[in-house]
Amino acid sequence: MDDKEQQAGRGRGALGGAALLAGAALLSKLIGTLQKIPLQNVAGDRVFGIYNAVYPFYQLILVLATAGLPVAVSIRTAALLEQGDRLGARRAAAAGVTLLSLLGAAGFAALWLLADRLAALVGDPAAELSIRAVASALWFAPALAALRGYTQGLGDMRPTAWSQLVEQVVRVAAMLLLLRIGWSAGWGDDRLAAGAMWGSFFGGAAGLALLAVFLRRGASATGAATGASPPLDADSVRGVGRLTGFGRRSDSDAAPVRTASEEGGREPALRASRVFGLSRLRPLAREMGALGALALPAALGAIVAPVLGAIDAFTVPRLLRGGMDAAEAMAAFGLYSRGQPLIQLVAMVAGAAAGALVPQLVRHRRSDPAQAAALVRLWLRSSALVGAASALGLALLARPLNVMFYADAQATGTLALVGSTALAAAVSAVAAPLLQGLGALRLPAALLGLAALAKAALNAALVPPLGIAGAAAAGIAATALAAGLGALAAARTAAALAPAPPAARRAAARLRRLAACALALAALAAAALAGARLAELAAGAASLAPRASAAAQTLGGVLLGAAVYGAALLLLGAVSAAELRLLPGGERMAARLRRWRLMP
Questions:
Q1: Which one-letter DSSP state was computed for residue 499?
Q2: Which residues, 6 or more positions from 389, have their beta carbon under 8 angstroms from its beta carbon?
Q3: Which of 83, 419, 481, 495 has the fewest C-beta atoms lying within 10 Å of its C-beta?
Q4: Which residues have a Cβ under 8 Å from the Cβ of 86 and sit 6 or more positions away?
């Protein structure tokens, strides 16, 4: 096999890993989205509001601690393995686990000790128990994130995918069990919300335990059965297991035995350094510093959404209290939060897929800059196409979605406004890891500060006169600002690596693509509304209950709209055959679409 074939195989493997991670993120986020439905249905809007007011604190600390470091560990692992430095790759994994565990412990202490003050800032003292409950999850989540980054750097996406699924399943199961126990026991709103938060603790413990099994045993039988990507390297697995405490130390790993004369000939300081383990701690500390320097700017860029959520939690309930008491304001905040799980679903899938491409992007940036630039452009365009369709669909189908998930149509207009931020959320989630992979590490921090300031200022201006609709409008403006600047920076950095082909840079070609995307979105809107209307008529004829009718309308609108949108993108030339060939199985897909006359 020649070099070009090997590079093509590695590219397909990376994109296959990205598809695997995106699928796992989609399924796990679907589970996470669905778990909020019984929480609101059973416990009510106030408990739902407390949950959504507290969760951003946990998410903020977790993302700040973990968002950049797993990708940094992945980058370091991939680079060191490319140089043949297996010991360095294992040290990078151990440094990531150690650093993230320390950050997680600090985050736990901050949330636990400041729970009463944070609850007061939120504007509802009932949130104190929930803040302490969710703080406990920080014992497991950071180390879990570091080990996921290490296995991604090895090129195996299966441990990350399986641990994501197990974490979500256990988290939701624990939450529902505690919710049922609390409801039967007559718990108050504060204890019900805290019980829901404890699910994150049990989910993180389960995910970490599964990942430890992967590290101890190498590629498990379950993972090998998928055949999605090559198994973990056995030597690397054993090495990181020894460094992180998940593996057994073999006789060959023991320090060599030295004679008394050899020991006596060494300096006392050197002997003390070996006795107390300082000779191992110094390289580990240097690696932790390198990872921190690489990860911090990207982490600051990745916490745009959690920061905006924390700003909402601090400002919206308090701003709403001009004409409401604390319980009413928190219930209104719960109504405002109904659309957040759907936005997070879009952002999570886009970000997971882009994050899986980072190691390959780093390699291509050095060896094949043109391929790296092409991947960046493809991923930015894909995020925009998916995000625009998601935003339009959520806005058009807001009413049936609201009734299907939450049993009533309250705040449907606000849900539509929140849903329209899906475009910016998808682009932001993709731009942050791409910028990190391209080496542009400072800009995400500036984008974070700008978006946070814009959100806080717009909340203060719009929430008092407009209520929760004003908070949604402020979110649209703030996320659009961050997404636009991030995408522009990623595109310019890619252009510096390798300019786009001359045909793609022509103004006429850009206008044709823009017009094709606009027509495809118009076709999506018509198809989604038609599908929802047909489903509504069929549900009426079948005398379905309102919630079942809303589910039918949502399903009909989504399926027909997605099918028409995909076909329109292909027929109008918004997606080319060359771009499809970059995807796993893209060559066969493009040939099949041409046979079906769906692609010119």
A1: P
A2: 521, 524, 561, 562, 565
A3: 83
A4: 80, 235, 236, 239
433, 594 in Cβ contact below 8 A? no
Residue 264, both tokens: 């006596």
- What are the angstrom distances between the C-alpha of 101 and each of 13, 96, 108, 244, 511? 31, 8, 10, 11, 50
| 3-state SS class at 575 | coil
CA atoms within 13 A on the CB side of 187: 20
> How many other C-beta atoms can be found within 10 angstroms of the C-beta atom of residue 4?
8
Q: What angle do CA 538, 540, 544 make, to 5 degrees?
A: 100
Q: Interhelix angle for 86-113 vs 68-82, to 10°?
A: 170
Arithmetic mean of pLDDT over the chain: 77
Instruction: State which amino acid sits at residue 353.
Output: A
Whether residue 315 contacts residue 456, with contact meaning beta carbons closer than 8 Å, is answered with yes
pLDDT at 176 over 80: yes
pTM of the model: 0.68
Q: Within its chain, how far is the Cα of 440 from the centroid? A: 20
Amino acid symbol at 429: A
> Quick one: which of 19, 7, 92 has its CA closest to 356?
19
Q: Using the 8-state DSSP alphabet, how is residue 85 labeled?
A: -
CA separation (Å) from 358 to 82, 240, 353, 421, 486?
14, 21, 9, 25, 16
Task: Identify whether the C-beta of residue 101 lies closer than 8 Å to the C-beta of residue 141.
Answer: no
Average pLDDT over residues 382-411: 93
**Stated length of the chain:** 600
Burial of 9 per CB tally in 10 Å (0-12, 13-18, 19+): exposed
| Spatial contact of 443 and 486, defined as CB atoms under 8 Å apart | yes
Q: Where are the beta strands (DSSP E) in 289-443?
A: none
Q: How far is the C-alpha of 564 from the C-alpha of 522, rounded, in Å?
A: 10
Q: Distance from CA of residue 566 to its chain's centroid?
A: 24
Rounded distance between C-alpha atoms, residue 243 and residue 98, angstroms: 10
Whole-Å CA distances, 26 to 145, 162, 425: 18, 12, 15
- If you search the block for the tokens 């860029």, which residue do you land on? 301
pLDDT given for residue 265 in this prediction:
46
Beta carbons within 8 Å of 319's beta carbon, 6+ residues apart:
459, 460, 463, 464
262-276, pLDDT tens digit by residue?
444 444 544 444 443
Taking residues 40-67, what's their average pLDDT? 75
pLDDT at 188 over 70: yes
- Nearest alpha carbon to residue 391 among 487, 521, 199, 482: 521
The Cβ of residue 242 has, within 10 Å, a number of other Cβ atoms equal to 17
Task: For Cα atoms 54, 59, 60, give the angle at the middle one, nearest 5 degrees.
Answer: 100
Q: Within a 10 A sphere around the Cβ of 87, how many other Cβ atoms?
A: 12
441 and 365 Cβ atoms separated by less than 8 Å: no
Mean pLDDT of 570-574: 86
Q: Contact 168/31 with Cβ under 8 angstroms? A: yes
- Measure CA 584 to chain center: 22
Report which of 213, 472, 445, 211 is spatially closest to residue 335, judged by C-alpha positions: 472
